Amino acid sequence: MATLLLLSVLPLSVILLCISYLRTRSAHQRKLVLDALALPPSTRTFAFFHPYCNAGGGGERVLWTAIAYIQRTHPDVLCVVYTGDIMATKTSILEKVQSRFSITLSPATLHFVFLTRRILVEDSSYPHFTLIGQSLGSVGLVAEALSRFVPHAYIDTMGYAFTLPVVRLLGIPAGAYVHYPTVSPPMISRVNRPAKLVYYHAFMLLYALALRRASVIMVNSSWTKKHVDAVLAYPPQFGRWGVVRTRIVYPSCDTREMARLPLEGRERVVLSIAQFRPEKDHAAQVRALHALLEEHPEYAAEGIQLVLIGGCRNAEDEARVEGLRKLAQDLGVESRVQFVLNAPYPDMLGWLRRASVGLNTMLDEHFGINVVEFMAAGVIPIAHASGGPFEDIVVPFQGKITGYHAKTHKEFASAIHTALTLSPEEDLAIRQRARTWAVQRFSESEFEAAWEASGWSRLLA
Ligand SMILES: *[C@@H]1O[C@H](CO)[C@@H](O)[C@H](O)[C@H]1NC(C)=O
């Protein structure tokens, strides 16, 4: 009996001892960092878990915009970034943030903790059971992070939800900014292999438990919110325990240059900006042009053009472009379709300045930054009636439309016709409204207001 008791008490005491050791050590580590930066000992520290902070993508823009905001409005807080970019330095990272995003960060209240075990979360480390592998890997990586620095509050901004319970174990308040749910009930509703289904359900159960450890959850769009809310409601037996309200904090888009383009003097150019990937459905755009010319041959005399700008990454993309050229030929519209592959930014801006309407034909696109860019540039958007463009972007502003929606190529054709036959006043009004809405909705200040309203600072209290 005594042995049994000892056996059960022993591991618990070991854990408690470890935690108390970590806490003492962490105070010392923090002091060293604060001293090195000449910050007062009372400085609160807020840590971001972002192992790929130097990647320069959309997720990184969110990270740096948030940090710049905190630096500006809460100068008494030290932001800490856990990163695995061990080849980079603080200076090189700050320079890249400046050149890539035009975001200026202050080195005075920013500290990087470099992690050497990022391999633990790389997909290539787990050819099988990637979900579980990466999740357990993230636990290992956050353990390294905490062994190097224990902050007053923590936020995961890269979707490593399994780090949350670990952080909470040390009594640190935690939050999450979710760009994309790792898995969610709507996502697995299509899985039909029993073994796989069991795996996904088991994983989702753990994911739900982990996410419930966050006391602040931000999501980047309505789509993500829907999916994260579904995870938090899973399984129903758990009830509301640990469930917090998720808040949408839209990432900001850099629309500064586009918003300077003149609204008037547009040509009969129908523009598409999308990588030549299958889901973008460029074929629907070519078919829409064909349908438009069938109905309204007068556009040919007006010199209408469909311009498809897009990144072409590999042989598959090139083959798709060839297929599209062939389709245009078969439909007899090849002289009106122009492909612009891998265009440099200034060329794209040039097309945005000339175009009248912009197409987005992808079904269920989660967001659609190209649609925001159309609107900011004064190009009337015609977007697929689904996903982010439908729910978040091309929505009424001040009670009036900011663009059009369509599903079939025929509907796209008739929407193009509608947009091209607006009266000059209506035409200008809709371009202006779309621009005002897009620039304001996806602006930095809107992001900051939403970030503040999420209650992140409660984590530090
Ligand atoms: C949210 O993040 C996902 C994953 O990075 C991305 O595909 C989507 O476009 C993002 N949404 C917004 C509104 O930026």
TrEMBL record:
Membrane topology: Single-pass membrane protein
Transmembrane segments: 6-22, 198-219
One GO molecular-function entry: GDP-Man:Man(3)GlcNAc(2)-PP-Dol alpha-1,2-mannosyltransferase activity
Keywords, sorted A to Z: Endoplasmic reticulum, Glycosyltransferase, Membrane, Transferase, Transmembrane, Transmembrane helix
Pathway: Protein modification; protein glycosylation
Residue ranges annotated for the Glycosyl transferase family domain, each copy included: 257-436
Cellular component aspect of the GO annotation: endoplasmic reticulum membrane
EC number, as in UniProt: 2.4.1.131
Enzyme class, broadest EC rank: transferase
All residue ranges annotated as the ALG11 mannosyltransferase N-terminal domain in the record: 44-231
Top-rank taxon: Eukaryota
Reaction catalysis annotation: an alpha-D-Man-(1->3)-[alpha-D-Man-(1->6)]-beta-D-Man-(1->4)-beta-D-GlcNAc-(1->4)-alpha-D-GlcNAc-diphospho-di-trans,poly-cis-dolichol + 2 GDP-alpha-D-mannose = an alpha-D-Man-(1->2)-alpha-D-Man-(1->2)-alpha-D-Man-(1->3)-[alpha-D-Man-(1->6)]-beta-D-Man-(1->4)-beta-D-GlcNAc-(1->4)-alpha-D-GlcNAc-diphospho-di-trans,poly-cis-dolichol + 2 GDP + 2 H(+)
Entry annotated with the keyword Protein biosynthesis: no
Listed InterPro entries: ALG11 (IPR038013), ALG11_N (IPR031814), Glyco_trans_1 (IPR001296)
GO process annotations (BP): protein N-linked glycosylation
Localization terms from the record: Endoplasmic reticulum membrane
Family indicated by similarity: Belongs to the glycosyltransferase group 1 family. Glycosyltransferase 4 subfamily.
Protein function: GDP-Man:Man(3)GlcNAc(2)-PP-Dol alpha-1,2-mannosyltransferase that operates in the biosynthetic pathway of dolichol-linked oligosaccharides, the glycan precursors employed in protein asparagine (N)-glycosylation. The assembly of dolichol-linked oligosaccharides begins on the cytosolic side of the endoplasmic reticulum membrane and finishes in its lumen. The sequential addition of sugars to dolichol pyrophosphate produces dolichol-linked oligosaccharides containing fourteen sugars, including two GlcNAcs, nine mannoses and three glucoses.
Protein name per Swiss-Prot or TrEMBL: GDP-Man:Man(3)GlcNAc(2)-PP-Dol alpha-1,2-mannosyltransferase
Source species of the chain: Mycena metata
